[in-house]
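Handout, section B. The chain below has 104 residues.
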Amino acid sequence: MSQTAVTKVDGDYFDLPGTVVYTQAKKSLPEKGRLEINVSDPSVRDRFTWNAEITLDRRSNDIFKHILLNGDGSVVETYGKRVIEVTDETAAELLNQLATAAKL
């Protein structure tokens, strides 16, 4: 099982130098895969549409997911500018994939 690296991300890119804008947890997965979770800091949530961003990259298994948990409670899957609403069925599948990845 690989280690998870947790980093607090400074807001330089967002014109908020010296402010933590989100906390990032990254875990390497087999065959150059990764699981990355970013959680926005409550003090700057008005700058983001999302409260959490999840990326699961297991291309060796043909799985790539980029999920946003939005401040309004909605969950969407995004690929560039393409945004797909996540159904309950898809959410259950995503949770299963994340749970599997977390165990690697």
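Note. The CA atoms of residues 93 and 99 lie 10 Å apart. Compare this with the example in section A.
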